[in-house]
Amino acid sequence: xxxxxxxxxLTPEAFAPFGDVIAAAGQAEIINSGMTRKFADQAxxxxxxxxxxxxxxxxxxxxxxxxxxxxxxxxxxxxxxxFMPLQDRPWIVIVAPPTDIPDRGAICxxxxxxxxxxxxxxxxxxxxxxxxxxxxxxxxxxxAGPGENCDIHSIERPLIIRSLETERP
Amino acid sequence: xxxxxxxxxLTPEAFAPFGDVIAAAGQAEIINSGMTRKFADQAxxxxxxxxxxxxxxxxxxxxxxxxxxxxxxxxxxxxxxxFMPLQDRPWIVIVAPPTDIPDRGAICxxxxxxxxxxxxxxxxxxxxxxxxxxxxxxxxxxxAGPGENCDIHSIERPLIIRSLETERP
Lengths: 169, 169
Description:
The structure is a homodimer. The first copy, chain A, is mainly β. Chain A has one helix spanning 12-15; strands spanning 3-4, 7-9, 19-22, 29-31, 36-39, 53-61, 68-75, 81-85, 91-96, 108-112, 117-120, 125-126, 130-131, 136-144, 151-161. The longest helix of chain A is centred in the N-terminal third of the chain and has 4 residues, at 12-15. The two termini of chain A are 26 Å apart. At the A-B interface, strand 5, strand 6, strand 8 and strand 14 of A face strand 5, strand 6, strand 8 and strand 14 of B. Strand 6 (53-61) of chain A pairs antiparallel with strand 5 (36-39) of chain B, so a sheet runs across the interface.
C-alpha cells in the first residue's frame, strides 16, 4: 500500500523553499486614482539562463479525482515557472527541493485556493498542476529559448494523496 | 456633450495594432500525459529595455459603473504590460496607438470576456483596466527596473462609453 502524502495549506512561509506564492496579500500600493490596489513584485522570474526569454502560456487542465497517486515529478533546470489559476478554483501543488534527483521523503503537497498561484524556482521538482472537480485554466510564465529544459523522474514507491483535508501549517 | 466611444468585441485581429490577446484559442499542444492542453506563447513580453526585468503583480480593481468618461490615457515607454483577469469576469480595455501623444480619433475600447487577457505593446496608450459590476483581480506582467516608465496624458475633449453593447467586429 502506497505511503500517504498529506496536503498542507499553501502559505508563503511553507512554500519558501520551492519559490513564491502569488496572491493579493500584504501591503498594497494604491494606483490609478485610487481605483486599484497593486500587490507588487509577486514572483522572481528567472528565465535568462542560456539565452532564455519570458514566455506566457495558458494551460487548460483536466480534473483529477482523489485519491491521486504521485508517480513522477519533473523539473525545469533552466528557468522558473509560474502558475496562476484563472477561474478561482482550488488546486494542488506538489513539489520537492531542487536536488539532483527528487528526495522522496521531502515531497510536499499544498492545497491552494483559487486566488493563489505559485512561482516554482528554477530546478524545483514538481508534479503537473492538479485541478479538482472541474477543468481549469492557468496562466503560466516560464522560459522559452535554447537548451533542454525539462527533466522527468519516476517515483519508485509512489505516494498517494487521499483527501483534501490539510495538516495544520 | 462628450463624443461616444463604442465598445468593440476583443479579437486578436482587431487588437493587433496594440498588442496580443491572451486566450485559450487556436491550436493547443497536448502535454502532461494528455491531462493538459497548452496554448503556447501568448504574449511578446518586452521588458529588457534599459536594464529592465519582468515583474509580476496582482492588481485588485474597484468596479466602474457605466457611463464611463475617458479623461486620460497612460503609456509605458520602456516595456510591455500584460493583464489577465483572475475571476472570469468581463472587463474593458481602452487603448490608442503608440504615437507621441494620443490620437483622440484612434482611441479604441474593447469588451473582453473573463478568460481574455491582453498584452499591451511597449508605448501603447491605455486607460487603467476597467472592471464591471464587481471588483476584480488581474495578474499583471510588466517591466521593473531603472528609468521613467509611465507617461500620463489628459484627453482634452473626453469620450464617453455609455453601454456594454458592442459594434460588429
